[in-house]
Amino acid sequence: MGRLDERVAIVTGAGRGVGRAHALALASEGAAVIVNDLGGTARGEGSDPTPAQEVVAEIEAAGGRAVANSADVSDWEASGEMVRHAIGTYGRLDVLVNNAGILRDRSIANMSEDEWDVVVAVHLKGHGATMHHACRYWREQSKAGEAVDAAIINTTSVSGILGQFGQTNYGAAKAGIAALTVIGQLEMERFGVRVNCIAPYARTRLTGMPGPTSDDFDALDPSNIAPFVAYLASPGCPMKGKVFFVHGGTIQLARPWNLAESINKDGRWEVDELFEAAAPLADIDVAPRMPA
Ligand SMILES: NC(=O)c1ccc[n+]([C@@H]2O[C@H](COP(=O)([O-])OP(=O)(O)OC[C@H]3O[C@@H](n4cnc5c(N)ncnc54)[C@H](O)[C@@H]3O)[C@@H](O)[C@H]2O)c1
Fold first, then answer.
1. Rounded mean pLDDT of 1-13?
2. C-alpha 40 – ligand 1 centre gap (Å)
3. Atom of ligand 1 nearest to the CA of 126
């Protein structure tokens, strides 16, 4: 008996890296998995169906159920086709793991329009498009009287929730994904959908970290992230609208943007008086804290 028996899950960008590990873990817990991957380069160039097919073969060899899907998640219609692919193949959809991603790092002053557009499209639109189609399906199920117990797991980054130099395109998209998670939860809770988000940290082609140098626990293994994703995907999981930093054996809850000290006046401020009244706000330390 697995935690995800009878459940059907889509994992985007599941041909490599942390997405591949998510797909293997969900399948080993009993889910039928739509292994989505466009198969391009880390910069988002080209396409190749092989990575997704290889993960499907791995899942099947381990006795699981999976089917490959090569939709580009930044394509609104193709994302709809992927949701229909899941429902057409396995009769239902219960879990959506939005993970596909690329990088085109550049400081804002040097950024090209294309570098901006393609990164925001794959990450932010790639999450919004799949969520739109899956949420329409779950809303219909709920309105038809079905008991919906669905889960969305989105993928943000330390760059999106704390900020990282040289990643304005990526970090802005990832911050948007954290907001999409919080708002998605507000909108979809009444239809039986939980929406959570992870910021993983692991060795993949995107991070290019060196391999393990000892037989000790490998905290950078991308497979370390997957059990928490399987947990978030499971019926009975209590998490709703939350964002977590996940690395090795650490699962750390993130606090969203919060309001701090204020200055107040019974009326509209004059610019000149703000030079004095607002000055103390400049000295309050609200700098984000990087995880240890
Ligand atoms: N590895 C980390 O430490 C880390 C840190 C923070 C966030 N992330 C996020 O985790 C996710 C997975 O990254 P990874 O490190 O495993 O990278 P990866 O390159 O190993 O895997 C990403 C996969 O997404 C696929 N993909 C890219 N664009 C796609 C599209 N338009 N449609 C469908 N598939 C597409 C790629 O082909 C690739 O197989 C990304 O969203 C990334 O931003 C990773």
1. 97
2. 10
3. 31
Q: For the segment 247-288, what is each residue's pLDDT rounded down to a tens digit?
A: 999 999 999 999 999 999 999 999 999 999 999 999 999 988
Q: How is residue 203 written in tokens?
A: 């060795």
Lining residues, ligand 1, CB within 6 Å: 12-13, 15-19, 36-40, 42, 44, 51, 72-74, 99-102, 122, 126, 155, 157, 199-202, 204-207
Instruction: Convert 98-125 to b/e letters by CB count within 10 Å (16 or more is b).
Output: bbbbbbbbbeeeebeeebbebbbbbbbb
Q: Using CA atoms, how far apart are residues 126 and 72, in angstroms rounded to an integer?
A: 8
Can you give the pLDDT at residue 287? 85
Residue 73 burial (CB count, 10 A): 27
**Average pLDDT score over the chain:** 97
71 C-alpha vs ligand 1 centroid, how far in Å? Answer: 14
Q: Residue 20 Cα, ligand 1 centroid: separation in angstroms?
A: 10
Residue 49, burial from CB neighbour count under 10 angstroms (0-12, 13-18, 19+): middle
- For the stretch 103-143, pLDDT in tens is 999 999 999 999 999 999 999 999 999 999 999 999 999 99
The yes-or-no verdict on residue 292 having pLDDT over 80 is no
All structural domains of the chain, each given as residue ranges with its CATH number in brackets, are: 8-261 (3.40.50.720)
In total, the chain counts a number of residues equal to: 292
Which residue in the block uniquely carries the two structure tokens 């998640």? 73
Atom of ligand 1 lying closest to residue 74 CA: 31
CA of 155, closest atom in ligand 1: 41
Q: With a cut of 80, say whether residue 290 has pLDDT above it.
A: no
Q: Given this model, what pLDDT does residue 1 score?
A: 86
